């Protein structure tokens, strides 16, 4: 029974995908059946955005989300390149990674798309990774969650709001959420699975159109799916992706036939993709340093020349993380000399200089890099961290205040601001920054408590107090809105 509940919760989260109206196909390849898209009769866009924000806060509190500036920059760049070529995009998109070796990806309300780090371990090219992301984007633009909820509401006495609230409960408290869904939806599990399968084929087709327009290899989608299906054909416990994204032979065949409608494209090797993969093997694959070094060594034996630098970068990260700084330094210096503007290399060298207790070298390097790429988030976060390590708190704090204003959902910025404020003895600002961290994880009680303490520390009637009190009012509204969704 517990296994069934977990499977159903995974299914519910995986189909948590919605927002813009269904796209209309304009190309011969997109002759799709009309499944029905009366999604406007389910939840309003504002409601969907509220649910998406709530789900995201719950995930931050419950899942090992990877807050890695370099990887985040890469997947955001790749994701938005695809979004720019998708049909009928009417809402913002956000892409993030979860540290999990299992192969999976899912999307949900508000245009949020999650990728498991394990995807990088199984995708052999950027086009294969992009095919998974394009598939999830299609789920969102086709409003599959809203349509699934609408279909469920027709068969049961449940309202759309009850279904959406149960989904939130499933993330917040799995047993309560599944119980709520089971109580309000007759035959929910099998009907949801059947509906999801039809959505999967539709998402494949729209995803292929997006891949083609974005300049990726469309054939990468059926190739990746076929390889996964073959690899886990006889597995007693298939990966989560095959449970929430079933790959029956009919779906693979359909994707192959669809791909044949597109002209073959062979995009060049993406160095950024392979650098991201090397970084994940070093830090987020759940393997020890010896296993990671063995992986790089095996890959280097047959790697084309163009990819040697990416594997050497991975080796340098392992050396850096195991404090073998004398081995990491020559590799990273050589790589940066080859590509002076590469954020993967700049980030790693910054970490190296800090580990060597040479923050001034990191500051000088990053100042030069920021001169070429002003306000770049990866460089800015590294620069602020180096300033803090060099005890230049008065310079770091305004930089981080500006950064957290521009990127309020990045926990890295708030953590660094809290640290710099604490070192500088600005207790109210430290409390406020920590309050924002709690708010990002839906811990409203702690967030309000910290802001209340911050307000009490500053001068009565001051501008700071007014700002803190205004934020407390905003947090109270957000808390009430969040609780009402459940």
UniProtKB/TrEMBL annotation:
Q: Report the main location listed first in the record.
A: periplasm
Residues covered by the Peptidase M48 domain: 71-253
Write the signal peptide boundaries. 1-25
Compartments where found: Periplasm
What detail does the entry give on cofactor binding?
Answer: Binds 1 zinc ion per subunit.
Q: Where does Zn(2+) bind?
A: 135, 139, 200
Question: Which InterPro entries is this protein grouped with?
Answer: Mito/Outer_Membr_Metalloprot (IPR051156), Peptidase_M48 (IPR001915), Protease_BepA (IPR030873), TPR-like_helical_dom_sf (IPR011990), TPR_rpt (IPR019734)
Q: Which cofactors must be present for this protein to function? A: Zn(2+)
Gene Ontology annotations of biological process type: proteolysis involved in protein catabolic process
GO cellular component labels: membrane; periplasmic space
Its function, per the record, reads: Functions as both a chaperone and a metalloprotease. Maintains the integrity of the outer membrane by promoting either the assembly or the elimination of outer membrane proteins, depending on their folding state.
For this chain, the family text in UniProt reads: Belongs to the peptidase M48 family. BepA subfamily.
Q: What is this protein called?
A: Putative beta-barrel assembly-enhancing protease
Source organism per UniProt? Vibrio albus
């Amino acid at each position: 029974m517990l296994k069934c509940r977990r499977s159903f919760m995974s299914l519910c989260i995986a189909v948590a995908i919605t927002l813009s109206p269904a796209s209309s196909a304009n190309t011969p390849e997109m002759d799709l059946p009309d499944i029905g898209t009366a999604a406007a009769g389910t939840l309003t866009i504002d409601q969907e955005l509220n649910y998406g924000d709530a789900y995201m806060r719950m995930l931050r509190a419950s899942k090992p989300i990877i807050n890695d500036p370099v990887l985040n920059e890469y997947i955001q760049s790749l994701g938005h390149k695809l979004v720019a070529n998708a049909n009928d995009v009417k809402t913002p998109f956000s892409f993030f990674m979860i540290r999990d070796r299992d192969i999976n990806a899912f999307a949900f309300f508000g245009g949020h798309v999650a990728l498991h780090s394990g995807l990088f371990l199984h995708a052999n090219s950027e086009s294969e990774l992009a095919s998974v992301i394009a598939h999830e984007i299609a789920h969102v633009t086709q409003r599959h969650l809203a349509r699934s909820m609408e279909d469920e509401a027709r068969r049961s006495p449940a309202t759309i709001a009850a279904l959406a609230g149960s989904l939130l409960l499933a993330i917040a408290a799995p047993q309560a959420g599944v119980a709520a869904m089971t109580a309000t939806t007759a035959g929910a599990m099998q009907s949801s699975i059947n509906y999801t399968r039809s959505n999967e084929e539709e998402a494949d087709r729209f995803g292929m159109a997006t891949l083609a327009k974005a300049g990726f290899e469309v054939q990468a989608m059926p190739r990746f799916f076929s390889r996964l299906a073959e690899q886990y054909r006889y597995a007693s416990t298939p990966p989560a992706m095959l449970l929430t994204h079933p790959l029956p032979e009919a779906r693979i065949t359909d994707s192959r036939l669809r791909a044949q409608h597109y002209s073959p494209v062979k995009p060049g090797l993406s160095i950024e993709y392979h650098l991201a993969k090397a970084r994940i093997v070093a830090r987020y694959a759940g393997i020890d340093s010896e296993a990671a070094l063995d992986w790089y060594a095996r890959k280097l034996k047959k790697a084309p020349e163009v990819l040697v630098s990416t594997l050497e970068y991975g080796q340098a990260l392992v050396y850096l993380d195991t404090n073998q700084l004398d081995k990491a330094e020559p590799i990273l210096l050589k790589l940066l000399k080859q590509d002076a503007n590469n954020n993967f290399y700049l980030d790693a060298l910054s970490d190296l200089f800090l580990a060597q207790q040479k923050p001034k070298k990191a500051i000088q390097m990053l100042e030069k890099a920021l001169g070429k790429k002003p306000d770049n988030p990866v460089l800015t976060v590294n620069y602020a961290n180096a300033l803090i390590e060099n005890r230049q708190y008065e310079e770091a704090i305004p930089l981080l205040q500006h950064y957290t204003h521009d990127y309020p959902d990045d926990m890295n910025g708030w953590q660094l601001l809290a640290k710099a404020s604490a070192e500088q003895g600005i207790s109210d600002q430290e409390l406020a920054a920590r309050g924002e961290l709690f708010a990002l994880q839906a811990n409203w009680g702690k967030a309000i408590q910290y802001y209340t303490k911050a307000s009490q520390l500053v001068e009565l009637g001051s501008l700071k107090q007014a700002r803190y009190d205004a934020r407390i009012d905003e947090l109270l509204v957000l808390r009430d809105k969040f609780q009402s969704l459940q």
